UniProtKB/TrEMBL annotation:
Pfam family, one: Glyco_trans_1_4
Domain of life according to the entry: Bacteria
SUPFAM superfamilies reported for this sequence: UDP-Glycosyltransferase/glycogen phosphorylase
Keyword Transferase among UniProt keywords: yes
Signal peptide: none
Natural source organism: Paenibacillus protaetiae
Transmembrane segments: none
Matches recorded under Gene3D superfamilies: Glycogen Phosphorylase B
GO molecular function: transferase activity
Protein name: Glycosyltransferase
Keywords: Transferase
């Protein structure tokens, strides 16, 4: 039986309610945020997006409750940070069985069925589902009166299909293909219960809007920091930062090591810096390649020094879905980006204006050399991409406007 924990937290949201922030009928608007993973620390793309949104919702004055169905309990330190924003946190265990493979729902969803039983409150205005994985919460009787909103991190059917293309193991390919087909069916079921969608990818938003014009959908860019770093453009360090346990990231790194890295070894001061969380998985997949001038940081605690040591960032992904937040984060951290089309899709960034795009090894190599040989061009590209993100990635304004449009007479008072 899964362990269910409830944390009552005297947080920023509690103080806001005590301060009398208005709500029609009394009290501030109350939102339950449902996550498939504890959102803090924000050490990978999905967490960066979710954690930033929780902070924004709290800053806008809403009372936030958080329900998480994940594998691990958060540390006391991480919980302490979260309680600055969420009034209550509900935790339930994730349960996986081999027989889940036979279920009509994806295993990622079936393993989180305990969400149906969590004793959350009954008076939420909205339930914000952070991805398809937490779909079982909609069967929880306590949230029946709340309006559901789905944050679409990926088109999961496309995403799992891309994972099947990226992995080499036959068993993994079969699993990812099965999950892809199941997510196709789940998306149809989701439409029966949810008609409000927030897309992280502009590309996926446009496609959905054409296919489902009756739904209340919106492109909501990922939250970004107000602080942008300047590039140093010294040395010739090429950086990749991403989850090293993911097949599509591994595939991209291998493609780079096979086709691009050997051509750059003749460049003085060149190094390829790889950093990311391995989840304690082996890095033996790197061994077939020439690792001269390759530096690997396994699960680094802090990425600041890695970004600061870089000249440019590469995203050589061959398959994927949604927005690759690694590309956005690199730009924020002062690195111009050379990417494949997959690595920048859904961002709105344009080739040769904000980012350099190359899909063949020859194109990718030439793009890198162009920036390494011309620091002024690298700087102008970075400046243009940072300006684009500042202008178009205003998460707070878009989210506030979207929620306000759902209840146009609802009074909103920003507290921070």
């Amino acid at each position: 039986m899964a362990v269910i924990c409830v944390y009552q937290l005297f947080s920023r949201a509690s103080r806001q309610r005590a301060a009398g922030i208005p709500k029609t009928g009394g009290g501030p608007m109350k939102i339950l945020v449902a996550c498939s993973d504890f959102p803090y620390p924000a050490d990978h793309g999905g967490r960066v997006d979710t954690w930033g949104r929780i902070q924004v919702l709290a800053e806008l004055g809403y009372t936030i409750h958080l329900v998480v169905c994940g594998k691990q309990m958060p540390s006391e330190t991480d919980m302490k940070v979260v309680k600055g924003y969420a009034e209550k946190v509900f935790l339930c265990g994730r349960k996986s069985k081999i027989t889940d493979l036979l279920h009509a729902d994806p295993m990622q969803v079936q393993s989180r069925t305990e969400l149906r039983n969590v004793q959350v409150d009954k008076d939420y205005d909205y339930v914000l589902l952070e991805g398809d994985y937490v779909y079982p919460l909609l069967d929880n009787p306590n949230v029946g009166s709340a309006t559901p909103i789905l944050r679409v991190h990926n088109d999961e059917a496309v995403y799992f299909k891309s994972l099947a293309q990226s992995t080499r193991k036959a068993a993994h390919k079969l699993y990812y293909r099965m999950e892809s087909r199941k997510f196709e069916q789940l998306s149809k079921k989701m439409l029966e219960k949810v008609d409000k969608y927030l897309f992280i990818s502009s590309k996926e938003f446009e496609k959905f809007r054409r296919e489902h014009p009756a739904a209340t959908s919106q492109f909501l860019p990922p939250p970004v920091s107000k602080h942008f770093r300047k590039g140093s453009f010294t040395g010739k360090h090429v950086v990749f930062i991403g989850s090293l346990f993911m097949p599509n990231n591994r595939e991209g790194i291998e493609w780079y090591l096979k086709y691009i890295h050997p051509l750059l070894l003749k460049e003085q001061d060149y190094k390829f810096i790889i950093a990311g969380n391995t989840r304690k998985m082996s890095l033996s997949w790197l061994e077939p390649y020439n690792l001269m001038n390759v530096v690997v940081h396994d699960t680094p605690q802090n990425l600041d020094d890695i970004y600061q040591s870089g000249y440019l960032f590469v995203n050589p992904m061959q398959h994927g879905a949604g927005v690759k937040l690694k590309t956005i984060e690199a730009i924020q951290n002062g690195l111009p980006v050379v990417s494949t089309s997959v690595g920048c899709e859904g961002t709105g960034l344009k080739d040769n204006e904000h980012i350099m795009v190359g899909d063949s090894p020859e194109e990718f190599y030439v793009r890198i050399r162009t920036l390494l040989d011309n620091p002024e061009r690298a700087k102008s590209l970075l400046d243009a991409s940072q300006q684009f993100i500042r202008k178009h990635y205003n998460h707070k304004d878009v989210l506030s406007s979207y929620i306000g449009s759902l209840q146009p007479t609802y009074p909103i008072k920003q507290v921070l």
